[in-house]
Structures are given as C-alpha cells and as structure tokens.
Amino acid sequence: MIKTILISIAVISSVFLSAQDSASVASKNPEINTIPVSDSISATDLDFLKKKFDLKDVALSADTTPEFVGGMKQFRKRFFEFYKVSHSKKDNVRLYFVVEKTGYVRNYIAISPNKKLNKDAETAMQKVFERWKPATIKNQAVRYLMVFPVSTETFIEDNKEDENSKLQNINAAEIPDLNYLKTVFDLKGVVSKADTAPEFPNGMKAFKRKYFEAIETLNLKNNEKLDVHLYFIVEENGYVRNVTAVGKNKKHVKEAELGISRLTERWKPATINGKPVRYLFYFPLVSKKYD
C-alpha cells in the first residue's frame, strides 16, 4: 500500500515538473507565429501583460494561429479605418490582444512611451468587432496572445500593393490617360485584355453607328482636329457604369460622355477562363470617318 502511494506521488510529481518545463520553454520562446520573426514579445512587455491580463491557459504558439476574416492585411485595413494614419511611421506601438477560444477578442492593450498613441490604438482595436478563427492545438481551440506592431508604414505598403493588383491586368501602354483614370474610376478587378472582349449587340460596327447617332454634331473650327479619348467600363453584368472622356475641348468631352449615356443596350461581358470580368474600354474619337 505504501509502495503504491509512493509510486502515485512520483507520477504526479513527474507530470507537475513536465508542466513546469513546458511553461518554462514557452516563457523563453514567446515569439508569435503570425508576425515576422524579428517581432517578438519582450520579457518586459510580458511581465507587464501578466499584471493586466488573465493569461491562464493562454498560448504563445499553436498548431494553427488565429485567422482574421480575409487575413492579416484585412485586419490592418480594418484597424487603420479607426487609427489615425497621420501618426508617424515609427510610432513603435505594440498592441497586444487575446483571441479567445470563441474567436472573440476580450483583452487588449497597447504599449509604447506615448500614452496618446496607446489610447488611439486601443480605441481602434475596440471598434474592430469581427470574430477570428481561433488558434488550435491538437484540433482544440485555445486562447492565444497576439502582438500587432502598429506600423503606418506597413499599412501604406498594403495600399500600394492593392493599387498595383488593381492594375495588373491593364496594359498601361494602351491606356494613354491611366493616371487620370485612377482618380475617377474604381479600377478594382478591371482588365484591358481578356480571353473574350465585350460584345455589343450585333458587333462593333453597330456600336459605332448607334454611338454617333446619339451624339450631337461636333462643330470643328478651321484646322481643328477632333481628339477625345473616351473610356468606359463594361461591368460583369454587361452594363456600362463608369464613363469619362479626356480632351482639350470641354464641349467635345461632355458630348462624348453623353453619347454613351444615351445607349441603353446591354453588352455581353468580357471573360477570363469562362468567367465575366470588368473591362476597361478605350474608344478614341479622332477626325476620321467611322464605318
């Protein structure tokens, strides 16, 4: 009986020491997998968080880390909707928060020497209400400590990437006024080349005929040349929603735009891999006869 008790005590002690060893390893390696390796939780920050958060059962690493709907870039986008981008690129604010087993964020705090920036970061986090997919260990949801370096510079780079991705299917060499179009059109998902181009009912000849029937006669002065660049987007549903014209003569520009608005026909949309896409149409109006 005594031998059995001693063996039980030894087993319990072994389990307890194993748990202590695991905790020790975790505290010595507090890096978060969802951020770059160079960004980690400092020992000073961790000591501070222990005083502010309930860190019971909180993981610092997991088999799968928490996922925000749309990824971390989307999280940054939502966060910076409420955080002042005018702040310095080097704010050095570290935002910590716990993603609970339910996927909700219940604890968050910002750490930096600047109290105002800390408050701004915490206020922004409070307004991001989306539910995360929780972290898991052995397929079981766990509480997870996230660290988010608040970097205005990273957010600006995100925007540059988004802008470039919008234009990756547009041949800039074929669009003379692309920089201007960026300011007046939403070019997200727009292409200028596709497997099949948009089709007007009965073809392009029918489009040209109807278009020039729809515009007023453009009176040209002596030696004046008609030089207007007309742009419009044929949407995925075949309708034209965005129209603009570029040229020196304002009257010609206005009339060129009105000509498109007077056409009610629905196009057959452009397609890539069999799927309809938004298509940027460039239609130059020059001093020549269209047939």
Give an overview in words.
It comes from Chryseobacterium oryzae. Keywords: Signal. Residues 1-19 form the signal peptide. This is TonB protein C-terminal. By secondary structure, the protein is α+β, with helices and mostly antiparallel strands. It folds into 2 domains: 36-160, Fusion Protein Consisting Of Minor Coat Protein, Glycine Rich Linker, Tola, And A His Tag, Chain: A, Domain 2 (2-Layer Sandwich); 167-286, no CATH class. 36% of the residues lie in helices and 21% in strands. It contains 8 helices and 10 strands. The protein has helices spanning 2-28, 43-52, 72-80, 115-127, 152-166, 178-184, 204-214, 250-261; strands spanning 58-59, 93-99, 105-111, 135-137, 140-150, 190-191, 227-234, 240-246, 270-272, 275-286. The strands form 2 sheets. Strands 1, 2, 3, 4 and 5 form a 5-stranded mixed beta sheet that branches. Strands 6, 7, 8, 9 and 10 form a 5-stranded mixed beta sheet that branches. A hairpin with a 5-residue loop joins strand 7 (227-234) and strand 8 (240-246). The longest helix is centred in the N-terminal third of the chain and has 27 residues, at 2-28. The radius of gyration is 30 Å and the shape is elongated. It starts with a helix and ends in a 5-residue tail after the last strand. The model is unreliable at 1-39 (pLDDT under 50).
